[in-house]
Structures are given as structure tokens and as C-alpha cells.
Queue: 3 jobs
Job 1
Amino acid sequence: MSQRPLRRRLPRDWSGVLLIALALVSFTLGVIGFREYLGPGEDWSEVIYQSLQLFFLNFDKAPDEDVNLPLQVARFGAFVTAVWAILKAFFPQLRQRIRRWLRLRGKACAVILGYGPSGQAIGAALWQRDCGIRRVTAVHRTVTPELAARARLDGVLLIEGDPSDPRIMDRAYAAKAERIYVSDPDDLRAIDTAVAVRQHIPEPAKDIRVVLNDSAVAAQMAEASAAGFLGAPGLRWFSVADETARLLIADARFDRFALESGAERMHLVIVGGGSQGEAVAVEALLTAWRTGLGPPKITFLDREIGSVEARMRKRLPAWFAESGGAALYTGARPDLEFRECDAGTIDIARDLCFDGLRERVSGWVFAMGDDGLNLRASVVLHRAVMARHVDPAPIYVRIPTGHVEDAPDLSASPLGLAHTFGSIDSVIARSALLAEDPDSVPKILHEAYRKAEQEMFGRLSEVWSALPETKREANRALFRHAVLKIEDFGAVAAIRRDGVPVTEQGLAETLRRVDEILAYDRIDRGADARAWLKDGATLAEEDLRTAVLIRDAALCEHNRWTVERALAQFVPTARPDRALRDDVRRRHNNMHDWFDLGDAETRRYDLVMLRVLLSQKPAAGQVLHKAARVRTVFLAVDGTAKTCIAHVSGSGAAAGVDASELHLHLNARDDPASATTLVPAVMRCLAPHIDRRKQRPPARIRFDFPRQPGERVLALANLVAEELRGKLPETTRIDAFWNWRAAGSPVVGVVGHRDLTRFGGIGPVTERLRQCFMDLVMKRGVEAMVTGYAPGADRAAIEAWASLGLPNPSLLFPFAGHCSEGKRVFFTENPSDATAETTIEEEDIKKIADRSMLTICDGHIGQAGELLRRTNFLVFVIEHGGSTREGGTLDTLRRAEDIQREVILIEPRL
């Protein structure tokens, strides 16, 4: 996740260089001038002495002599040099005051009160990012040479003094600044400074932003200060932990990984339950609600887990099952689990505290306060994943404040299982903290929400400026969930230049048409959308799916809103009765199951935001996909021949049709000797799928790893990813999908007839098997195949499997023996009936499968039994109606059905 700003070299002190240059030029011109002035016969030592004397003593000119031009220039240059040197050496405060005064002339000025890690990051980001600020002054208690160097690096004028001292604020011309940032490692001291600033500059319109460390304090500070507690009204409160968490969740997309891996819900494991871990948990719980997923699960691992749980219970009482009807209903209650664990000593493969965490986890976040411990524990987990003790899932390691600009990314590869996050410079540079208006997107969407509300219900809610801070924060959380809402509706989200997500315009009209005819109080859990219509209304067949999507979107939004209200300390009333609502005691009557809300209007309110999002117009020239379409491409690479063959899955978007996502399976039977030499071949295969002249570029490219990749295959994938980044728009997301299973992935077996005449021959069967294998790899994670080697279906399966670059198959032979030359041979039929086609020499088999993957069975019955024992799925190339013999295709199908093995039939097409 870390996107570190570009590295910069420390700028040269040009004032010193110019001073030296001016002195040298003045001295040289003085030597030339005095040589002429004193005459050619004068000794050189006297000429040099006279030239040096210009810098310290007065030049006595004879009344009857003219001063030549070089000497005249040297006289004035020496004077300027001397004055400049005196000011630079003995009057730095005057110099600084002049710089401050010049810096504050005009607009676009900012003052940073507190130049610690956060303040330094703000200064660096303001220098690099176009955020309406061009000149920055910072105040810090103690200015060290390192801080001064950092300030010079970022073009910041650094002043030594107490940031909360009004006299220092006057020296920094804070009252004239466009924006004031307050930052201090001590949150209480930061609040003290903020109060002092507000008292010194009482203008309500003054833009003052306070950066705190503690997530919980920042979340509640605006409400507390408005009620007369700590702080001062009219300030904007930010938390580094919150900003880090928002960027992490937006980048990591744990919700998407849960959906794509087939999990029942998003399950996030957070190692470290401090302020950063708590902020990540809160952000994940606010933005992880997706249709198709249950309530999210968060597992905390910490040495002091009791205090972590107590703090979460105190902050979020409605998230836990309490007596008196105060608990959330089941559909909106996240599963919060707390486990005591010492991350520094844990044995992931064997420790009981990891039971239940070794499979189907959506992501790992290491957010302890110790950088070294975060790194060490994450490496241990990564090693356990590679050793197949734990299912793979994205790993995110926090690298917090200590490194500042030089925070390491830890990985030079764009595709990897482990990532870093939380580098102060990268977090600040990307956060809303720097924006001219941090609420610009929420304001736009809130105004659109008001218009949609008036259209749907005939009333207008409050404007943004009239909203209390609690409602503003609720709306901010709602809008951060915007992209997920668009995706849940089967659309593709793109970001407009102003930051607003947009999608294809036709969806808005479809939603509006179906929404207008739905009677929301009739919607139930069933699948028959026709029963949900208003009296006399009819629903077209193509709109049935839209009606179900509307219901699911409303459910999802209501669950998310309920959790957000719980975060704001609200608890549900005993029943959904408006008369029981009490905003002072924070009891809300709508924090109940959506189906228990009998009022149609209340239910329908959960669709307003989706209607707003689908109605946003794209920017001029912005390219949008009309629908979410996935194309899957299998790339089989041959390291020896340096070739690549591509096969497109028929279950997704066909080649040449716009695809919003491109899923790439990069397969090699053996690790290639050199990944670099294969890149051109792979890019030639991908060229038709990324050609902008023929189709819209994909919004996302996903490298799929349904089996653990070898070192060189992973290197090849990273090289291809880098090439793709150079050929696709910056908005195209490129990431990896890790979906193998530590316990072992499913195995497919193939059984079929020898005579394929009714199927159209071996070619059509091979293609149908290839498509079948691609589906099984994509949807079931299959990574191995077992079959025989008989002519017909078996050999078609081997060819189809090999064409996808998948691992060598396991082969079963019913008979084995030796030929007349003494060589070992294998038979696909009884040796007495063997022909040249059914007799295979051992050397030929080695080209197809390793010796360890070869099994000799006891006849055809034993071969069928071995196939059933080894496989999870069975593909039958079968024609019903023929004779049945023991161990044959029809007999094996019967046995598979008897043991309830999942089967896939490939039959002749009529």
C-alpha cells in the first residue's frame, strides 16, 4: 500500500554558494583593476593585498586619478559581499524575519505548529501536492540540525519556539495564513495548542486542522468541543491512525477477497489491539458490508487482550450481546473475537491460539507499536503460508512514524502476498488532510442526496453546513462505501476528477423504473419479486433481477448504517417504535432488522444513496464500462521454447468484447530458467486483450494463483505486471489473487470412451475438456488431474490439461509388463489384447508424467477404484445407452453416484 513520495536530494545552500562566487569575482576583478591602477611595475603581492583590502578597509582614491571599470565593480562587489556575510553570520533572526514577511505576502500560505513526524510529513506533502498551498512556515520547540535539514529539503521555513505561544504565532504570521495545521506527538499538548490558536485567531472561518494520534479521541473530539469540553469549536480533527486505516481498507479490499474466494463473510485478523488496530477494525466494519457476505468478523490477537476487549466493549456497546434488548440484531452484529497471543513467540503451525485462523481468513494486519515485532511476526506468518500451514491471504504490515520519509516499502514487486502500510509520508500525502476542502466529495454527494430525497419523498433534509458533526461523520462513512455499492449492483465504478465515483448512466434509469413500482412494505426474504409490486403494477422479465438487487442493496446499506450508528454509541430500542426513540440517551428505533421495519418509507430510505451514485454523470471524455464483465485468460508458458499460448475461458467475456476485468492464469509446468526472456511472448498473447483501439481498457487486471507459484513464475508475473502498467491507464488496478488451500486443493479425474466419433472426434472433445478444466481451476481451485492413458477421452484430457500449462497429470494404468526387448511397458488394455496403440513404453510416459505420478492398478476395476479414491470431481466423456462392463466408463459413473462423488458429464451434442 505504501506509495512513498519521490526521493529528493538535500538542496544546496545557494545563498552560501552565491556569496562565495561574489567574493571570488570581486577579488579577481580587484586584482585586474589594481594591476592597471598601480601600474605594470607594481609587485604582485601588493596588487593582491590591495584587492583583499577592499573587503575590510576603505579604498583611498587619489584625487587626480580615474578608477578603471574592473576596480569600480570590485569595490561595490566587495561592499555587498561584506554586508551580506555580516548579516548571514550575525543577524540570522533579521534574515528569518525578512523571509517570513516575504513568505506571507499574498495567499496560499500555511503554518504548521509542531514539526514532529506528522508535521514533517505535512510539510513534505504540501511541497509536492497541488493542494492550494505554495509557502509553508513551521514552528517547533527545539530545532536540531536534522530538523533544519528536513525543513530545507521541503522548502519549509522553520522557527524555534513554543507552538502554543501567541508571540510565536505572531512571529509566524499565523493570522495571515490560509491554513493552520496543529500537530504534536502528545495529543493533549496538540489540543492545548489548538485552543491557543483559536483564542489567538477567533475568526470562525479560519481553517485550522488538528492532527491527533489516538483514533477514538479524534472521532469524538468535534462533538466534545462543541459541547464545551476540551478543545475549541470550529476546528477540524484528524487522526493519523484513522487516515492510515482508511487508505489501508481502500487499497487492500478485504471484502473483495472474501467475495472472490467464496467465503461466507470477510474475516480480518488484526495483530495488535492499540489505537491503530482499533482504527483498522472500525473502518473495516464500516465498509465491509457486501451483498452475498454475512456480517464481518474481526479477530484481535494481543498480549493484553483483556484490555483490548474492555476498551472495545466500552466504545461500542451495541456490538456485543447485552441484556435489556440493547444488542444489535443478528444480521448486523459483527463477530468480534479476542485471543491472547504473544506475536513475538507464537508458533503459527502448532499454537492453539491459531486454531480456526489457518483457513478462510480474508486478510492479516500487523499493527503493533513495534516496527521490528511487526516485521518479525509477519515474516513468520508468510513462511507458514509458504509451508502450507495456513491458507494464503493478503498480509499488511504497519511501518509507522519512526522512519518518516525513508519508510521502507519492503518489496520491489508489484505482486506479492505481503505489503506495507502506514508510512507517515505516504499516508499524509494521500489523505484528505491536505485537500483544500476535505469534505468536498461528501458535500457533492450530500447535495445530490437531498435532491434524490426530494424526488422520492417530497422533502429536503438539512444542508451540509447545518448538519451536526455526528451526522457529517455518518455521511462521510456512507460515502466511503460508495464504490462497494456500485459494485454490488453489478456495475463498474470509475472516479471522476473531483473524486466522485460514477458508473454507466443507463443503470440509473433502470433503478428508477423498478424502484417506482415496488411496494417496500411487501418485500420479503423470498425470491419472487412479482409479489413485491404495488397494486396494478407489472414487472418485465428483464427487471426481475434488478428488483432483487434493490432489495439486497437496501439490506446491505441498512446493516452498514446500523453498525455506523452503533459506532456513534447508539443502541436499539426494545422494538422499532418511533415513540421510543431518544437521541439524548442515544436509543434508535430503526436499529432493527430491515424486515422488521414495517414502514415502507423507512425501508426505501436505504436506496437513496444508491440512486444518487448511479445518477452521477461522468466527466467529459471519461471512459466507462457498461457492465461488469470478466474475461479469464490462461497463459501456458514454455521456458525451454520461450513461447506462450493463450486460451480464453468461454464462461466470461469473449475476446474482442469490452471486459472490465482481466483474470490471468500464468502457468508453467516447470519454473522457467529466465523469467525476463519470456516477457515478450506473454505480452504478445495479451496484446489483443489490452488494445485500446478495439476495446475499452480493463479497470482491473488480476493475476490468479490457484496453486502456489514457483519463484520464477512469480518473478515472471511481476515483470508482466510492470509491462502492463506502462501500457494501461493509471486508473487500471493490477493485483494478485491467492487462492490455493493449505490443506490441499481439489483433484479432478477424467473417465471416458475410446470411440469419440459421436462427439465429433478428439478435437472437439479436447476443447470441451479444456473449457471444463478452466472452469474447475477458476471456480474450484483444482490444481491436479488423474486419468488413464487409453486412446480417446483419456488422451484428449491429457492434451487439454497440458495446453493450459498445468502440472503434469497423475496417470493410472491397469496393466504393466515388459516387451520382447526387456523394456518396461504399460498397457491400457489386457496384455493379451494389446495393440501398438494401447502399449506405451516407459520412456514415452516420462515425457508426460513423473515416475512418482504413475500408478499400476489391478485391472480396470482397480483402476476405477483408484480414480474414485484420489479425486474430488469426476469428468465423464460419456455416451449413454452402450454396454456396461466392470471397470468401464458407465460402471465407474454408477460407482461415483453411489458414493455421491460430484460428476460432470460431457455428452454428444445433438
Job 2
Amino acid sequence: MDLKKEFLKYFQYWPWFLLSLIVFVGAAFIFIKITPPTYETSASIFIDKKQEDQTKIITISTDKKNSEDKLEDEIRLITSNEFLLGVVKKLNLNFTYYEKVFSVKNNNVNEVPFVLIPTISKDSLPVVSYEIKVNQEGFLITEPESEQTYNIKGYDGKEAIEGLPFKIQLSPKAKKNPSFYFEKEYKVNLEPTGVALKNLKGSLVVLSDENAKGVLEMKHVSSSPDRSRKILSEIIDQFDKTIVINKQKVYRNTVSYLNQRIKNFSKEKDSIESVKEKYLQSNDIGVMENYIVEQTADRSQKKESSMLNDKQIALTNFAINDVKQAGPAQALGTDYNLESTTVNQMLVSYNAKLMDSQMILQRAQSNNPAYISLMTQLRAQKQEILNSLQGYLNFLTQTSKANRSEQSIAEAKVKSIPTKDKILGNINSNLTTKEETYVALLQKKEEAVLNGAILESNLKTLNAPETNYSAIFPQPKAFMLGAFLFGLLLPFGITYVRLFLDTKIHNEEDIQKVITDVPILGHIPKISVSDKLDNTATSRSLIAEASRALMSNISYLLPRKKESKGNVILFTSSIQGEGKSFCAFHNAITISNLNKKVLLIGVDLRNPQLHDYFNIKRNVSGLSDFLANKTDNWKEFLQNDNQFSKNLDVLFAGEAPPNPSQLITNSNFEALIEEAKTIYDFIILDTAPVQIVSDTLNFSHLADVTVFVVKYDYTDKSNLVQVSNFIKKEQLKNVGIVINGVNMKNAYGYGYGVSYGYQYQEKKVKKPWYKKGLAVKGA
């Protein structure tokens, strides 16, 4: 990147940069002077969360870190509408007082020699300003917007004026010497409570200090430091009172809650005791431990009794079988271990009689009446024994059934012991919990009563409200620097956008980006009308020097010819107004001043321009007349009597024909060129624009060099695309480009400056200041 070239692109607009700087820096300076400075007042407080937690009777959260670090609730409280509304009312922020120092700047004051008494609700006050002066008669009040004045007589404030939302009276201090305030003028701003509250919230900032736990930073921005300090002090005071009020409210709620809970728990404890009593009574339980021992012993006893009874049944069955199997002369057993005394005696008695029968049988025969009688008795007695055993067996069987029923009942009672013990345990556990909670509630109540007796705020003021008297707005240095930078950036941005959107040609780079490998032959400067014809052989004007340089560069493009014939140079452009006729005219003069015979032909039959430079009427006969009549001699139409050079002949275009394309393509024109080449050293053709009509392309092959003219700050880059296509298709031959109408002072990318060539100084033309630096369109 060429920094110098980039700088020159913007430097040409230096008047606009200067004007922008003057406007913005001046406006910033005036703004700083007329705007009252705004100051920041700050204060910091510490909220001891540990103390608050220690005084809590009921703690819900156990997250100490969360309780100590976060102050969102406190910030939310301080910035709430309800809280700040109390500050607005306490400090009467509906009224703002100023002492008028001069018309564009007011000084805020806190003490004025009068008192305003609203006659309407503060919520309904209008947003309006009044100017107040104290005079000998009373007060003179003016409303600046409507310019309406009110004269109030007296200083006691008894008079109510229609249209004023307040009464006014002198303050007690001012009543001692009212004349002291006669020369002073005051201004008061009124605003309803809602607006005052909104303004207070907008100027107040409350933040927690990240580096210090429990610390709140409060900042208030205002043009009155004393007013800001009062606001912050009132906020701290109100917040301190709010903390105590909230603690008292918590204390009352806590004691009320504890009393209610103690009452409820007392009822619940009595209810559980009643349930326990009924349960013990219904289950015949005195003491659970004794009940368990009794039921276990009863079960064991029932089981043992049942086993003994079963044993007797078995012995009885054995005895019955044994008795039945015994023969008539066989003794019965007496060792059955039966617990029936009657049966045992009967067995002993039977055996005794059997022995008697045996003794009789030994002394007598079996038919002995005594023996027979005794045997009959033994049979009868044996049957009685069997009957007794059967009866005893039936008794034992019944007893066994009763024992099994009692044993089942005892077993069921033993199995139900764990369930009853669990139920009783739950009852006892609930009762114990209720008793412990009841005791704890009584303890908490005593603690609450003690804490309520010594309630205090956990707020401490670390830094009292203090004002930083370095104004935060407007800051002169930063404001002036910002205005200076904005004053530069605004014209720079506008210029950048303008240049970015600019599609005109300004330098060689613009051309080479579209058309490559085509040489730039030179630059024709923009000159004033009076200098257009200053191109004599001895002239040192800009146009003369530029034309000589252009001819020198064209000579390098001319092909070397074996035959001694003249060279044909064709001048054309994309569209009208780019100065091709101007360049062709000066190039013809420059070559003729080099002792070369030159023929200048106006081939633009549609819009001829050459006659203007020679001060000749447009309808003079010329090329179109020759082409229309083959019998004419083209030399008869030449104009060789001119004040520029004796070596220059001119063939003007002539009257505009109805069919220029057909005329220019007939053989007469080519014959003219061929004949002229034998007479003249150079033939200069001023042709029609190639992008508008095709006339030039029809005879462009006759030219040895084609000079394509573009105009500085006029030719659009898009026009070069079509020309590039003509060159690629060889419809234009041996092309070189010349840039016309270059402003040597302002054109960036050329570096000409004021002078050009020899020590020639361009004639200075006085221009309005607002046009200096702006590009002037070329000729």
C-alpha cells in the first residue's frame, strides 16, 4: 500500500476535516461550559450476617456461606419502590432548587429563603419550572415556558394564586433580613412523586462488594453533592430502621408461632398418653416386661400339663389292653403308673381276691361253690376295672382337648408379644418425641423473649456518604478528546464511503485494474478557459508541456515504416464529454509546432466539436460534404488559415448528415486517408465515442496509433470494460490511454503539485473556502 497516495486521497478534503473539528470541538467546549457538572457520591455499609444468624430462633437453611455472601434481598429492598418512596417523601424530592448564576448555567442549592407549601397532592404535581425572586412587596414568580408571571404580596404565604400548585412564604431565617435576598434569583423544578421516584432510581446504584463479604456499596449521581449525601444518609437511616422493624416483626411472629406450637404439642402429648392408657387396659398389660414373663411361664405350664396328660392316656390304653389280655387266673399289673387312685385300688383288690381263689383251688376242686362264687366276683371286678380304665381314659381325652385349647391360647399370646411390644414402643417413641419437642419449644420461647428484649440492627456504616469532586460528567479532557476524534472520524467516514462508492477514474491504477497491458501515454491537466489556446511553440503553459509529453509517448507507439508516408493517430473515447476533441486539437498543434505537416480531421459527424477551438461556424463545409459527393476534391474543404501554426491544416466535419455511418464507411474516406498520408507527416482523427456509436470502429483499422481518452473524475470504470473487449477483439488498433482534465493540485496519485514542467506557476484563481479541496471537473 502506498501510504502517501492514501494520505493524499483524504488530504484533498482538508477544509471539511477542519470545519468538522471546529464544529465538534467548539460544541464540546460550549457544552462543558454551560452544563452543570455531575458528581458521584458513595457510601458503604456492612451487614453482619453472622450476628443475624446467631439471633435467629428458627433457622431454616444451614448453608452459612450462602447466608453470609449474598445480599440480593438487601439490594432488592433498598432499590424497591416502596422503600425509595419513603426517601422521596422524607427529603421532599418533589422540589429541586437552583440559584440562577447566569442564563445558561444554574447552581443547585439546598437552602433557599422561602418555603413552598403544595396546594395539591404531591402525586399530582405538574412537571414544570418556576423562576422566583424576592422583592419588597413579596414574591415575583415566572413560568419560563409560558412566560406567565405571578405577583404575590406579603411573605406569610396566606395568599393562594390560581394557576400555581403551591403557596410560598419566607423561611424563618430569611424573615430576619428579607432585603439580603432581593438581588438573587432562584429557580425551582416541580415533579410528581412518581417522576421523582423514577429519577431517584435512575441515579442510584447499589452493589455488593465482591472482595468483602456482607459489604454494600451505594452510589448516587447528581449535580448537587450535598443533596446526594442527604439521600444516601437517609437511605442508610431508613434501611437501619427497616432492619430493626423486620426483626421486631420476626420476633412477634416467632413468639406467636411458639405459643401456638406449645399449645398444640401439649394437646398432642395428652392424646398420646390417653391412647397408651387405653391400649394397656384393653390388652390387660400392667408392665410390658412382667406381661412377657407371665405369658411365657403360662405357655410352658400348659405345654407340660398337656404332655403329662398324653402320657396318662398312653398308660391307660396300655393298661386296658393288658387287662383284656389277662386270663381268668392271671394277676393284673399294678405298676401302670396311673394317677387314678381308684383304678390302682381296684387292681390291688382284684389281685388279692385272685390269690384267695388260688388258695381255695389248692384245697378244693374247681367246682367248689366258694371257688365258683369267687371267680364270678373276679370276672365282675375285672369288668369294673376295665370300665374304670375306660372312664379314666375318656376323662384324660377331654382333659387333653382342654389342654390343647389352652396351650393354643397361650401360644397365641406369646406370639403376639412382639407386635404389642412394637405398638407400645411406637406409642412410647411418639410420646417421647412430643415431650422432647415440647421442652425444646419452651426453651426456644424463652430464648425469643430474651432476644426480643435486646433487639438491635446488624448494620454498620463503614464509610459515610462522601462526594468525589472530580466530575464524572462532563469530563473535560475525555469530552474534548472524544469531540476531536469524532470531528476527524465523521468526515473521514463520509469521505471513505464516498470514495468507496466512487466509480470514476482518478489515476492510472483505476485504469490498469480494468485494462491491462495498455500503456498510459500521459495526463492532460485541467486548465481554465483562457488558457485553452495557449499552446504555441514557445509556450510553457501546463497544456503545452502536457501535449509535448503526450506526443513524445505516442511516438514510441508509432510503427516503423519502410515507405515515407504520414502516420495516422486516432483520438476517441467511451462517451461524450471526455475531451477527445480537446486532446486531438492540442496534439495537432504540438506536432505542427515541431515543423511537421499535420492534417486535423473532424470525423465525429454526429456531434462535431473542433470548430469551437478555431472559432468557426459549425455549418462550414467539410468531410461530410466530400464523402457525400465523390466528384469533389477534399483539399478544397481544408482550412489552413489559422492563428496556431502554418503547418496545420484542418478538415472540419461539415454539416451533420442523416446517414453518418454509411458516409464514413464508403471508399472515399479511406482514399482520402491514403492520399493525405503522402502529403502530411501526421493525420489526426477526431472521432466519435466508441461506446455510443459504431462509426469509429468501422475505420479504426486505418489508424497507426489509437489514443483512447478518459477524463479524470468523469469517466466511469464500467465504461472501460467494453473498451477492453474492443481491444481484445482487435477492433481498436495499437491503443494507448491518455487521462484528460487532471486537477494537478488535488488529484491524488500523480504528484504534480502547483508547478509543472519548467518554472511555470499556475495562475491562482480565488475560490470560496467551501470549494477548496474539492475536485474540479476537467474540461
Job 3
Amino acid sequence: MRLNTKVFSSVSTKSLVFGIVIVFACAAFVFTGFGSLNPGNLSGLDPNTIAKVGSEKIDLQQFSTAMSAQGLSNSTPPEQKKAVAQQIINQLIQQKILNEQAKKIGWTVDQSEIASLIKNVPIFQNPQTQQFDIQLLKQYISQQQMTESYFYSYLKQQIEIQKIHNLIYMPIVLPGKLLEVENQIKNSEFKLQYAVIAPSDSFLKKKISEASHKYVEDKTNLANLTTLFENTKNQYQQKAQVKPLSILISYKTAQRAQGDALKRTKDEATALAKQIETKLKSGADFSKLATEMNDDVIAKSNKGDIGFVDDTRIDKESMKTLLTLNAAKPLSHIIETPFGLRLFKYVDTKPAVSKKFDDVKYQLAEQLVSPQVQSSIENELQKNINEVIAAKNISNLNKIMSENNITWQYLNKPYKVSESYIVELGMTEELAANIFSLKNPGDTVPKILSFGAKKAIIKLVSKSSAHSLTPELVQTIKNQILSSTTQEFVKSVQQSLTKKYEKDGSIKINTALLN
């Protein structure tokens, strides 16, 4: 069936956001689905049919179009491709269930509805005239490798689905009292103080030190400590390191030569290095010259800085020279290396490290006992604070906070229940559920709240009630409530329909094609 272009030229030009959604729906399927669908009976499906829902078919072209939009490549693991395919099938089956329901209740979609939809999609409108252009439509269909008949059929099905959604989204009567309560919940503002519950660093360090000494003194722990030492020995055996600034002047026969160095002879490189050396001895800025004249790409981008090095990270001749440099004698002479000619300027030194087991056994013990000690102390502290705030024992609360160097801080801005994140703390789910327990300034939420990585107690400073309801605010709140409740209702209806179709054996999937 070809699209009737006369119909397109006759419909009005109102703006329909839904049109944009529909046109691009075939290239962007949401990976939600509604659980795993029962394949049902595979008999009766022709080779070009992926699945069938009642009388509605999902053909191979429809499935391939959706799959190609996912950006999968030949290197994508087969398991991932299979999972994506199943998600797309779930989504397409959900659409076909709604199409089937549309048929059962007698929905009809005529050409004028489809034409009105297409005509108001921006990509089908001429930029100069702002009018529908049939050539742009045909160009789009061609680019998507569709036939006009397929495109027409697809839009028809999507309009059917939208009509079913409109039926499900029935209006709900909201009493005025509910709107007032919702307004107070959503729009009241709270100025708050918070105190992050964590033991002080000094107290924690002391307890970990005590526990590590006790751990070392117990001979039964010697094997654990020895194993940890052997596995981490490298960090306790370190050669002397020097941190210099570096300038490399390379030439075409040097190792790893690149860029301008490939045009330079060794004699030309030597002459250039001597010019730089002369400038440095005259007080020129090493970092500036390292940025301008370097053939070492990394050093050039870091103003000559190559970090701390030892003889495992730099050639022997360079390291031998670096070990002679210090703050009193920072500049090197020109050094000949396999990579070219180098000049260095001393920045810092790390002495050699060679520690034995006895030198680090307490440090090793700290690594082993620290997580358990910290967890135990934090749990005990939280238990004690929960007990005193539940009992409203302010004096004991202040004592515990003082002992652990815990202080009250102010939130930078008032808090509203509609907010899901507080900059100073983190996610706010628990706070929203407990905030209305605070009645008067100074009241504290009667338990420690979790904000993700942080745990804190909350105190009320002041509260500002929401503004009185205006017609505009009433409509906003209504929209918020209706959006939330109807989305849940639609999801529930779709899940029920899916279960019914599965139970009736109305969903059939050709798994052979999916593999």
C-alpha cells in the first residue's frame, strides 16, 4: 500500500510531540520489558516471523530494524547479543499485545490520523516554508530501508497503542484535603543542622595501633603477617630515586627518534644541546626551554617533569648523572644516551628503602586489623548515639559528640522533601521519611540516618510552611500525583495482559531465529 500524498496535503498543521516519538520509536527501543516471556508453542510460525501475539505478527524486518539500532558489532559477545535480542522481543511483544487489545475493543485508525501525525513531525517540514514536504518523508523512509507500506503499518499500530494508553489513563478525582496535605509535604522548607557520625581520626588511630600491637604479640598470627610481607615486599625494597626536569635533543639515528629529530644529524643535535646548555648556565628558565625544545613528548607536555626515576625507569648513563645532582648542584652536563642528548635539572630525591620484616610487622598488622577495628568502633558509636537520641538525653549526646570530635554543621540551603540529594551528605531517602517527626526547633530525628556513604543525625533549626494553594499550584500538584499513580496503573495493566496472553498460549516465539 502506498501512502496517500493527497491526504498529507489536506490536514492541518498543529504541533504534535507524539509524532516525533512515534517516528523515532522504531530506532530506539527501551530495554525494559516485563520479565521473561514464556515462548509458548513454536508451531505455525513462518521463517520470516520472529513472534506472534494473537493475530499480530512481529516480522524479521521489524526485529532487524530494532537490533541494528543498538550499535552491536561483530566483536559483541554472543551472550550479550542474545540478551539484547530477548529485551527487544519483550518490548515488541508488549506493543503487539496492545495492538491486539485495540482490535478487540474496535479501535480504528484512518488515513487522516496517520497523515496528521506525519505532517507535524519537524523533520518532514521544509526549513524555508515550514510546510510538510513529501520528498523529505520519502527520503527518510528510504534512509531507514523501509517500504512505504511498512512505515504506514507501523504508524497505524503505534496510534492504536496510544489510544489504548489514553483509555488506561483515566481521570482521577483528587479531594481538596489531599491536595493540601500533598502541598505541605512537597513544599514545606526545613532549615537543618547535621552531624556526620564517625569516630575521630585520633581515637581511631589509637585503637588501631593498640589492636595491631596485640595482634603482633600473638604468635599464632605470625604466618599471616609473614605471608602479607612476602606479597608486598616490593614496597619495602626501593632503590634511590631522583625527580628531575629533563630536556632530550634527539637525532635521526638515535633510538625512538621521531618528528623533527628525524631530520637532524648527531652533530646538529650536539650543537643545539650546547646552545641550550649555555642558556641554562646563563639563568634561562629550564621549564620554559623544556617545553619549547624537547624531543621527549611526555617531558615536553609536563614542562620537563618526568617524575621520580631509578635505574629501572631510565638509562644507566642518565641515572649515574642524576645521582650526582643535588640542590646545591642542580644542573647536569650534556649526557649522551641511546635516545639522544640529555640535560637535567635536579628537583627532589627519595632515598633507598630496604626494610626487613621486623621493621614493618606493626604496619602490616594495621593493614589486617584496621577494617575490623574501624567497623567495630563505628558500630559501637552509632549504637550509643541511637540510644541517647531515642531517649532524648541531650547531655549524653553532647558528651559523646565531644569525645569523638563530632560537631553540628548547617546545611547551606533549606531542605524540601521533593529533593533527592543533599550536597553535604548524599542521597536523602531516609530523611524524607523522617523529616515530619521534627516539630520544634532543636528537635532531633530519633535515629541515625543513612545518606549512602555517610551517616548523620539531623536537628531542626526552623520550618517554613508551604504557601497557600493557588489554582496554578493545585494543577501542578494534580499533575504530579496523576503522573505517578497512572504510570503505576499502566504498568500493572500491561503486566496483567501479558500474563493472560501467556496463560492462553497466545504468545509464540520462534527461538530458532533469535539464535
